[in-house]
Amino acid sequence: MEAKLSFFVHLVRYARGRSPWLFHLNCGGCNGCDIEFLACLTPRYDVEQLGIRLEGSPRHADILCVSGPVTRNTQAALQTIYAQMPAPKVVVAIGSCPASGNVFADSPSVVGPLEKFIPVDVYVPGCPPRPNAILEGIANAIEQLKTKPVTGIGGKSHA
Amino acid sequence: MPSWFALLIFPGFLYAVPMGWLMLWLERKILARLQSRIGPPFYQPFFDFIKLMTKEPLRRASGEDIFYLLLPLLALGATVGSLTLLPILPSSASAVGDLVLFVALVEVAPICLVLLGFLSRSIFGQVGAIREATLTIATNLPFITALIALAYASGSLRLMEIASNAPLATRAIALLALLFCLPIKLRLNPFSVANAEQEIYQGALTELDGWRLGLWELTHAVEWVALSGLIASLAVPWRSGQAILDAILFALLSLVLVVVLTVIAGATARLKLLQASRFYWRWGFGLALLALVVSLFL
Fold first, then answer.
1. Which residues lie across from A54 on neighbouring strands?
2. B47, A14: Cβ pair inside 8 Å?
3. Would residue A23 be called left, alpha or beta, if left means φ above 0 and alpha means ψ between -120 and 50 degrees?
């Protein structure tokens, strides 16, 4: 029974590492990071060979990629979208804005940094970061995704 | 051949699930190669399924949860059931049903998808459901007309007799009309209006998470096997009598169809709902009607 259980846990961890689906959210950024992020999905970097897919719905996603300094307008949407993602989930902060507010810090319309609202697992600094830095951040996020607790089919607690 | 064998082993679950995953992978891989990317490894749909099934979905209202479980299961069961009626092995003609039952079973999955879309109460889900319903009506006109032409030409509603007796001219035109219907039934470009990603996210599937989505992905994989299998099994009139040979021929023909459909999908852009419906009412139905006329006079 023990051996079977650990095989199942290993299989689930490996499957998670091979099929991370991303959801991309701009929290009031200047679009620079978003352009670099979308460059990861082009044939040049081709993230699909790692099983990565960009999803349109947060309910399908495993990794939430946030760019921008979190403005007053986007804060509620950010929290809703984070709550809609099923566990296990990991958050990647792309660029300097979600980490510190960057040049927008102390602006009256900026309420960030990001970690005031949701837990952040990986920071990718840069203004904007290059696609290979973003890919490294996502690879790091995948490693963290694997270590999250494994549940049985339908999310029943297991191991 | 006992019907439990057809349901559970060939062409049922044991064949259909790995084959469906292989087809889903082939679709993504060919699309990637056409865009000069490398594409996902062949075990990708399997790992996607494992991951989705073991996520912790958010709790829904208790009345909704049961439907999220039952609708995909109903669609999956009906689609596997339709597979068992395909005339692949000579002895499978003795299966319980015929063409009418096949059409009924294969249509369960789109109806379940429409219901799921409305159940989600999301605007994207509802738009997806409306599109799916509209296109189901548009595509079933040529689909059923072509099947009627085949049945009339071979003088039987039994799929095995249609496969062996249909005259060549009717068969060629009717199968072409059926092939026209596949992109819409599998939600592929240029008729991927119902699931239109980047436009209405995933259509009816937008609000599904965890195992709810995983079950639906599995159903979609089996839908690929059933619909490409219909054409593959009706295209060849003779059976070798050797079950293994017939099965291999059937599987290879299905995979060729997947390649054809994917190349068309990769080379085209999405049409609008009106354009897609008009295409089916005009050209798809025209072709199916031609098959019917040919079957009446030849």
1. A22
2. yes
3. beta
Interchain CB distance below 8 Å, B28 and A87: no
pLDDT computed for residue B64 by the predictor: 80
Query: Which of A15, A51, A155 lies at the smallest CB-CB distance from B57?
Result: A155
A51 vs B40, B197, B205: nearest CB: B40
User: Tens digits of per-residue pLDDT, B206-220?
Assistant: 888 888 889 889 999
B contacts of A152 (beta carbons < 8 Å): 54
Q: Does residue B57 sit at the A interface (CB-CB below 8 Å)?
A: yes
Task: State the ipTM, two decimals.
Answer: 0.88
> CA-CA distances (angstroms) from residue B67 to B58, B61, B63, B160?
15, 11, 7, 36
Q: Where are the domains of chain B?
A: 3-297
Domain A22-146 has CATH 3.10.580.10: no
Domain assignments of chain A as residue spans, ordered by start:
22-146
Packing angle of the helix pair B108-119, B211-235 (nearest 10 deg): 160
Which stretches of chain A drop beneath a pLDDT of 70?
Answer: 1-5, 152-159
Mean pLDDT by 10 residues, chain B (298 residues): 75 88 93 90 92 84 81 91 83 67 91 89 88 90 92 86 85 91 87 77 82 89 92 85 84 93 90 88 91 87
Q: From residue B162, how far is each of A136, B166, B167 by CA, in Å?
A: 57, 5, 9
Secondary structure (DSSP) of chain A? -HHHHHHHHHHHHHHHHH--EEEEEESS--SHHHHHHHHTTSTTT-GGGGT-EE-SSGGG-SEEEEES--BTTTHHHHHHHHHHSPBS-EEEEESSHHHH-GGGTT-TTB---GGGTS---EEE-SSSPPHHHHHHHHHHHHHHHHHSPPB-GGG-B--
Provide the pLDDT for residue A159.
41
Q: From chain A, which residues contact B within 8 Å (Cβ)?
A: 11-12, 14-16, 18-19, 43, 46, 48-49, 51, 55-57, 59-60, 62, 83-84, 86-88, 150-155
